[in-house]
Amino acid sequence: MIYVTGVRLQAHHVRTATFDTRWRGLDPSQVHDYLNRIADELDRLHRELTTTNTEAERIRQALRQWQSRHAGCRHTAPGSPNSRWPR
């Protein structure tokens, strides 16, 4: 089995993993079925991570825009002398 250090595990790493054979070892078809399930889950998680990072960046940009638009605004409590709210 090949393990690459410093690189995130990707689905294709799992799908292409190879194992030494032994006289009394695990059933190769069960091992490959399990590795395929893990690879599918990795694919799903990577897609979810990409979607989440994209959404987080969109929210960060919206917050920056909001902060820029409201940089000069001052908050006053309702009922204070400078408030636009009636007492």
UniProtKB/TrEMBL annotation:
Its main location: cytoplasm. It is found in: Cytoplasm. This is Cell wall synthesis protein Wag31. Residues 35-62 form a coiled coil. Residues 67-87 are annotated as: Disordered. Keywords: Cell cycle, Cell division, Coiled coil, Cytoplasm. It comes from Micromonospora thermarum.
